[in-house]
């Protein structure tokens, strides 16, 4: 199997697994920060919730209605970001959004772990906004932005 086929196989399996059983799904009543993101192209919306302990993101959850890619991306995002400092979370989310939206950039699978599987979405340009929706919503939550953010 070529590297590209292996990546696409991993992509399909990860999206399927995380969308069927999303991690950290649900409302976080104790959230100190939250934001809502909207993809106007399909109408899907998700909300990201955070609780902070000092500079650390102690808890992160999400809820909403989305396609398999947006749910899988949100699920993997919460697993990646939980326990990180705000600074590290901001740097990771900027790297990930950059990697999704600039297909020519190499994806560092050592650095991004399972998230590397999501880079397979770059083969489907019309679905990239599905993958970035949770990350842009997380960015708004960290910034304390109470307006609904849009992928457009
Ligand atoms: Fe709506 Fe993917 S189709 S977020």
Class by alpha and beta content = alpha+beta
How many structural domains in the coordinates?
1
Number of strands: 4
How many angstroms separate the termini? 37 Å
CATH topology: Sufe protein. Chain: A
Attached small molecules: FE2/S2 (inorganic) cluster
Strand order of the largest sheet: 3-2-1-4
Uncertain runs are: none
Q: Helix count?
A: 5
Shape: globular
Based on CA atoms alone, the radius of gyration comes out at 14 Å
Please summarize the sheet with the most strands.
4 strands, mixed
Q: What do you see in this structure?
A:
The protein is an alpha+beta fold. It has a single domain (3-144), classed as Sufe protein. Chain: A (Alpha-Beta Complex), CATH 3.90.1010.10. It contains 5 helices and 4 strands. The protein has a 4-stranded mixed beta sheet, with helices on one face. It binds FE2/S2 (inorganic) cluster. FE2/S2 (inorganic) cluster binds next to helix 2 and helix 5.
